[in-house]
Amino acid sequence: MLTALHKHLLNDFQRDFPLSSRPYLDIANALGVSEGEVLSALTELNDKHFISRIGPIIPPNQLGVSTLVAMAIPEQQLQTVADMISAYPEVNHNYEREHCFNLWFVVIATDSRHLQAVLDAIEQETGYKAMSMPLLDDFFIDLGFKLDLHHA
Amino acid sequence: MLDVRDRQLIEIVQLGLPVSPRPYAEIGSTLSMSEDEVIERLIRLKQNGLIKRMGVIVKHHQLGYRANAMIVWNVPDNLVKQLGGHISQFAFVTLCYQRPRQAEWPYNLYCMIHGKDRATVLMQLDQLNEFCGLAGFDREILFSRRCFKQRGAIYQRATGTLLTHG
Fold it and tell me: Which residue in the set B23, B88, B110 is minimally distant from A23, CB to CB?
């Protein structure tokens, strides 16, 4: 069950988290609660896996290169192959999707040589073909996501 | 534009700010950087647009947004930019990218929709098709099933030490 404070923390600080010495105190002052309450509410949200982290969103291809990779894996092999792929530190998202290409993951690296080496290693380790679709253009300005928490 | 210290700072901040009274001071102490320097660098990175936004990154699924669809279209190359721009105007769209077609994959325009359920996502997709004029193009909808891994982007140097997600 989410409290009013939880809901404010989830929705109101996705974009302009304070860049100040005591950011949680600034948030507390903005919401009329104590810093301690903000810290415990955020810890609860974290523990319940409602938030992934507090941090920056960095557009792809600013610090390196990235690609989206699709693989078609037989169902009974999927968990094993997915685990192999998740173990690569260069992989940051890894999802099963409803399609014959059923495994989709993002690989990032500081340069394209390293990226290619990771793709080669994944193909070799798993024995399946990795179809790579590098990013060409990014149209979206991620300003956060307004959650409807009415019934949450 | 980015120096080595910026990169080191980004690597640490991507793991998530500590939830404690002086998070920037804590981050600074692991990098031998003062709290002021951490804050100044982050402000500059945000002004430069390298940091698009700074804040709470929510987990949609746990918050009741159970239906996550990746929708892909095959649109003419000369229309990708315009269509991508239109798609990105919709609040329920969380990502929109152009990617190259492949032999077994004829699609070049991608978007992601997070919705509370499938029916909502499909309704939102209808809206996109109607308002952006996408209905005539080949497309596929790929709903997600299991999430095996999700975390911030951490750029590995080929020979560097690995950062673990705490």
Answer: B23
Report whether B114 contacts B42 (CB < 8 A). no
- A vs B, Cβ pairs < 8 A, gives 258
Identify the residue among A12, A19, A106 best suited for mutation to test binding to B, counting B beta carbons within 10 A and taking the highest. A19
Q: How confident is the model at residue B159 (pLDDT cuts 50, 70, 90)?
A: very low
Residue A58 token pair:
């960095």
Q: Are residues B81 and B131 in the same domain?
A: yes
Question: What is the C-alpha end-to-end distance of chain A, expressed in Å?
Answer: 7
pLDDT per residue as tens digits for the range B143-152:
999 889 877 6
Closest CA to A107 of B70, B68, B101, B154: B154
Name chain A contacts of B104, Cβ cutoff 8 Å.
131
Pick the CATH number of A65-134 from 3.30.70.3270, 3.90.550.10, 3.30.70.3460, 2.70.50.60: 3.30.70.3460
> What was the ipTM of the complex prediction?
0.81
Compare CB distances from A114 to B51, B56, B158 and report the shortest one's residue: B158
Contact A152 B63 (CB under 8 A): yes
> Quick one: pLDDT at residue B155?
65
Q: Give the pLDDT band of residue B153 (cuts 50, 70, 90).
A: low
